[in-house]
Design a protein that fits this description.
The chain is of the alpha+beta class. It has three domains: 126 residues, no CATH class; 60 residues, Signal transduction histidine kinase, dimerisation/phosphotransfer (DHp) domain (Helix Hairpins), CATH 1.10.287.130; 158 residues, Histidine kinase-like ATPase, C-terminal domain (Heat Shock Protein 90, 2-Layer Sandwich). 52% of the residues lie in helices and 16% in strands. It is built from eight helices and eleven strands. The protein has a five-stranded mixed beta sheet with strand order 4-6-7-11-10, covered by helices on one side. Strands 1-2 form a two-stranded parallel ribbon. α1 packs antiparallel against α2, α2 packs parallel to α3 and α3 packs antiparallel against α4. The longest helix is centred in the middle third of the chain and has 49 residues. The chain is elongated, with a radius of gyration of 32 Å.
Length: 360
């Protein structure tokens, strides 16, 4: 990685070294301890000074100054985290989301809890800001590639360098399809971000639904020779939004086909988990495996799978993210599970529709 792209290291303000008190669970208790301690020191000091013949007019102001000094020292340790959080908040307002507050392990009071909550908020804001930057960069790249290809082909045709043959026109059509798919993905992504997704809930036959979903994928698969083995019982009915669920299954099955060698088989197997009221579907890509450390990563936006060593799938990197979103809208999940046969995407959906407030 070049120095220009070296990630900025989080700034961490050290607080616990300035906090002589922090083991207690209550700020009120800590203040009471400080006041009691300083009062006791002042009383003992005044007693010794008076015992050794010091004038009360001198002893009392002196002990008062000492008591105030002790109180100030300890109270400054209590309030210093608040001052440093104020500075960190100002830095975040200026766009620096890498600021952190180091609370230490000995800070259990309200100030320590506030500092830890501040760090969690900063982490979320930094992640959101990085996601925004990544999204802009990735969308720009994804749009530029087909647009550049279209522009080059159309210019060549306009200049007479390339003939408008059926093959060249089909190449242009493929690029426009890619643009159309990307725009559709981005629209779904905007709905996902906004949390706006109206569902048209209805009962439907799950076997027919899978058949209708698989048929266009088989046609689009063309000459790759994949065999899609569908094993779905005829008696399963599900309550949900067919359009959203079709997004879910289309993206997962298309992902399996994309990462399967030509002439191999993809299994779609469904059974009903009556104990938990779930419909469980496994989409198995025979032969290939997904490393365990990458199984959650592939559901992130704009993360592309590998079709081979050092090669990316060439998709938008949004399909699985949208698939997971569609499953969550129905109160379900999409995960990669252990399976010796190959990469196994397990889709769990409730048989009955879950209320909107639960899904939210």
């Amino acid at each position: 990685m070049s120095p220009a792209h070296t990630p900025k290291q989080p700034f961490r303000a050290v607080l616990h070294t300035e906090r002589p008190i922090g083991l207690l669970d209550s700020l009120k208790t800590e203040l009471a301890v400080i006041i009691t301690f300083s009062t006791a020191i002042a009383f003992v000091m005044a007693w010794f000074l008076l015992k050794f013949g010091w004038s009360g007019w001198i002893a009392m102001p002196l002990t008062l100054i000492v008591a105030l000094g002790i109180t100030y020292f300890f109270s400054r340790g209590l309030t210093s985290p608040l001052r440093q959080m104020t500075n960190a908040a100002k830095a975040m307002a200026d766009g620096d989301y890498t600021v952190r507050v180091e609370t230490g392990t000995d800070s259990n009071d309200e100030v320590g809890q506030l500092a830890r909550s501040f760090n969690e908020m900063a982490e979320e804001l930094q992640h959101a800001d990085q996601m925004r930057r990544d999204m802009v960069a990735n969308v720009s790249h994804e749009l530029r590639t087909p647009v550049s290809a279209l522009q080059a082909m159309v210019e060549n045709m306009a200049d007479g360098i390339v003939e408008p043959t059926p093959a060249n026109l089909e190449s242009i059509l493929n690029q426009t399809h890619r643009l159309s798919d990307l725009i559709a993905f981005l629209l779904d992504l905007s709905r996902m971000e906004a949390g706006a997704a109206s569902l048209q809930i209805e009962w439907f036959d799950f076997h027919d639904f899978i058949d209708d979903t698989v048929e266009p994928l088989e046609i689009a698969d063309g000459g790759h020779g994949h065999i899609i083995d569908v094993r779905v019982p005829d008696d399963i009915r599900v309550e949900g939004d067919q359009d959203r669920l079709r997004q879910l299954f289309t993206n997962v099955i298309a992902n399996a086909l994309k990462h399967s060698a030509d002439g191999t088989e993809v299994l779609i197997e469904t059974h009903e988990d009556t104990e938990h009221g779930m419909i469980v579907t496994n989409v198995v890509n025979y032969g290939s495996q997904i490393p365990e450390q990458a199984r959650s990563e592939i559901f992130r936006r704009f993360v592309k799978g590998k079709t081979g060593p050092g090669t990316e799938s060439g998709g938008t990197g949004l399909g699985l993210s949208i698939a997971r979103w569609a499953a969550q809208l129905h109160g379900g999940t999409v995960t990669v599970v252990d399976d010796p046969r190959g990469a196994d995407f397990e889709i769990r959906l409730p048989k009955y529709h879950i209320a909107d407030d639960v899904m939210a």
